[in-house]
Write a structure and sequence with these properties.
By secondary structure, this protein is α+β, with helices and mostly antiparallel strands. It has a single domain, classed as Winged helix-like DNA-binding domain superfamily/Winged helix DNA-binding domain (Arc Repressor Mutant, subunit A, Orthogonal Bundle). It has four helices and four strands; from the N terminus they run αβαααβββ. The protein has a two-stranded antiparallel sheet. Strands 3-4 form a two-stranded antiparallel ribbon. Strand 3 (101-102) and strand 4 (111-112) form a beta hairpin. Helix 2 crosses helix 4 (68-80). The longest helix is centred in the first third of the chain and has 14 residues, at 2-15. The radius of gyration is 22 Å and the shape is globular. Residues 97-108 and 115-121 have low confidence and may be disordered.
Length: 127
């Protein structure tokens, strides 16, 4: 039992270099030129799905059903790979990325998200 406690204490020392407080807020890092695949395990995906720009490290652990220690270990790895970063609770969130262009089905070309598509139907006939 003492060995396990000593091991966790050592791990917390390492984790605290990237996660100085469990009250910090994780947020996504937008890297527009990132290429290649990102492979996530089930635990990493679970933690990523709880990041909303408002929840703290501690709250993400609670929401995911993991201990704060286990959630912090996963977040540490996500920070190290550059997928997320932490900000202080009092710091405003980083500006969101512009809306993505989504391909649409049908005969219309892709349009920026939020822009109305032309009305469907036959063209008006000239009299």
């Amino acid at each position: 039992l003492l060995m396990e406690a000593a091991r966790r204490l050592d791990e917390w020392r390492v984790l605290s270099k990237k996660i100085p407080s469990v009250e910090m807020i994780p947020e996504f890092v937008v890297q527009e030129n990132r290429e290649g695949q990102i492979n996530l395990n089930t635990s990493e995906w679970l933690i990523l799905s709880k990041i909303d720009g408002h929840r703290s490290v501690k709250a993400i652990g609670q929401a995911s059903g993991l201990s704060v220690f286990d959630a912090s270990k996963i977040l540490y790895g996500l920070i190290a790979t550059g997928l997320i970063r932490l900000r202080d609770r009092g710091t405003p969130p980083t500006a969101a990325a512009p809306p993505a262009t989504r391909p649409r089905t049908g005969s219309f070309p892709a349009m920026p998200a939020g822009q109305a598509a032309p009305a469907a139907g036959p063209p008006a006939s000239a009299a």
